[in-house]
Amino acid sequence: MNTEEDLKPETVDQVQKSTVERLEEMNRIAELGGGTEKVEEQHKKGKKTARERISLLLDEGSFVEIDRFAVGQISEPNAKKQYGDGVVTGYGTIDGRTVFLFCHDFTGFGGSLGVMFGRKVAKVMDLALKAGVPIIGLNDSGGARIQEGVQSLASYSEIFFRNTISSGVIPQISLVLGPCAGGAVYSPAMTDFVIMSEKSSYMFITGPDVVKAALGQDVTFEELGGPDPSSGESGVAHLVAKSEEDSFELARRLLSFLPSNNSERPPSVKPSDDPNRVDLSLDSIVPNDSNKPYEMKRVISTIVDENDFFEVLMRWAPNIIVGFGRLDGESVGIVANQPSYLAGALDINSSEKAARFVRTCDAFNVPIVTLVDVPGYMPGIEQEHGGIIRHGSKLLFAYCEATVPKVTVITRKAYGGAYCAMGSKYSKADLNFAWPSAEIAVMGPEGATNIIYRHEIEKSNDESLRQRLVNDYKYKFVNPFIAAESGIIDSIIQPRDTRKELIKALHALEKKSEERPSKKHGNIQL
Q: Which of 1, 160, 215, 488 could bridge 483 with an S-S bond, Cβ 3.0-4.6 Å?
């Protein structure tokens, strides 16, 4: 073979030109994914290609692709090889912050996962963990690649392992923009947040055909695993976007509340809202009748900067509210009972929802603000047999485990074990405030009176006596002043001052450090 020195200058130029042309041609082919026809099919479905999605998600011009020319290992005769092997991987920036990402390319083998596909995804996940930056997955896949057999399933396991070791270390966000079925759903489910897009995405373990064959049930893709059941019934989806573009905006906004890794604080923004702002409307938001509902989201939006609250899991277990906001420019996680739904009582789903959110905030150094109006745990055979004891304990575990700054405000009811579970003083919340309307007791005054004075009430058969006893119990036990006397409540505050008191408290706790016993991990009641 001739060396470069043996070639004439014009021949060297030709070789270099040929190499450049070859690279340009390879890039052109790679950009087309599965080809022009497949791209057109994707567009006809109202869906974008992998690279179009990435360009909309990341800062303009920031994407750097890796493994663009990797090809799969399909061994079938006459099988076409394709650059990228059905997935686009790389890194870029969102609001100037580095992220790694992978995006399934449905135009290539239906976005199905093969060995090379799996290696590419595993590589960017490893790089994200090493770099200490978020990993974002854009999912639109037909599942495991049948032509590559069990090796494709092994690749899924490689991804699941990385989801696990990255959990609580770097934020993991999944966008479901198309089908996500079978083994493919477990990776998004293992990430911190799942965003689905209306009309184009669905998630399930077994599809409608299998459900029909196995159980005789007729069900559509949407009914089985579309955004509505996934966000409302199962709680697997945290956010639902109206379009692909909207899903990218939701991902960017979500990331703005989270640090790049668990050793950093969440990003701050320059505050534009007065930290001393008061709102007189809060003084009258709680009805005089303690059995009447009110809208807790009004309280939240009034308190946070610019009235801007980013709620997650809003469709699942709406008796509890979780989401992010800012107080004086700093990111906070908010957990609040919703008295306008099931009276804000804790049940199986709401306990699990809040517990997962509390643990997410704790993992990523986001302070937790808790707003309490809870009459107790939901009673009934369905809840007891469904495991309310086991699931309800998750919320207790999460609050006790969390070491980030925790500030609690009791707006009205805080009864029984549910009081303990909602960021109480002895579940190690740092500061506990109460509004004058707070009712803190083992149970409500009506129920307590019926138990304590049962014989007197039965003997007299006098409703006015019963009411006097109820009022007496309220005066003696069901008010924040008794709790303040014992130090269970640190301060009783006017509702109008809630925002400024929270801000002062969180500034005071800014450098909080709390050590716990060394252990491999806790054993939460899963």
A: 488
Distance CA 365, CA 264 (A): 7
Q: How far apart, in whole angstroms, are the C-alpha atoms of residue 347 and residue 344?
A: 9
My answer on whether 245 and 301 are in the same domain is: no
For 386, the enclosing helix (H) or strand (E) is helix 381-386
What residues are annotated to the active site? 182-183, 417-418
Spatial distance between the Cα atoms of 449 and 146, rounded to a whole number of angstroms: 67
> Same domain for 170 and 88?
yes
198 shares its domain with 233: yes
User: What distance in Å separates the CA atoms of residue 320 and residue 337, rounded to the nearest whole number?
Assistant: 5
Same-domain status, 25 and 174 = yes
Cβ partners under 8 Å of residue 483, min gap 6: 434, 438, 440, 489
Pair (232, 251) in one structural domain: yes
DSSP per position, 470-514: HHHHHHHTSSHHHHHHTTSSSEE--GGGHHHHHHHHHHHTTT---
Give the distance from CA 419 to its chain's centroid.
24
The answer to whether 311 and 301 are in contact (CB under 8 A) is: no
Residue indicated by tokens 């745990």:
377
3-state secondary structure of 330: strand
**CATH number of the structural domain spanning residue 417:** 3.90.226.10
Measuring CA to CA, how many Å separate 486 from each of 433, 442, 481, 483, 490? 13, 15, 9, 5, 9
Q: Please list the rounded mean pLDDT of every run of 10 residues in the chain (526 residues).
A: 46 68 86 82 88 97 95 67 90 98 90 90 98 97 80 89 97 95 89 94 90 92 94 96 96 98 97 95 94 96 97 98 98 98 96 98 98 95 96 96 98 94 94 96 80 77 77 82 91 98 98 93 92
CA distances to 32, 91, 101, 245 from 61, rounded to whole Å, are: 19, 11, 15, 17
- C-alpha dist (Å) from residue 133 to 32, 127, 188: 29, 9, 18
Domain count, the chain: 3
For strands 202-204 and 179-181, give the pairing. Answer: parallel
Task: Say if 192 falls within a structural domain.
Answer: yes
Residues 192 and 43 in one domain: yes
Measured CA to CA, the distance from residue 404 to residue 105 in angstroms comes to: 39
Note down the domain range covering 188: 12-256
Q: Which of 222, 256, 290 is the last residue before a domain boundary?
A: 256
Same domain, 238 and 375: no
Residue 136 in any domain: the answer is yes
* Backbone torsions φ then ψ of 359, nearest 5 degrees: -70, -35
**Tokens for 431?**
């500061």
Helix (H, G, I), strand (E, B) or coil at 346: strand
pLDDT in tens, 331-356: 999 999 999 999 999 999 999 999 99
525 belongs to a structural domain: no
pTM above the 0.85 mark?
yes
Residue 89 domain-assigned (yes or no): yes
Q: Residue 283 corresponds to which tokens in the numbers above?
A: 């003084």
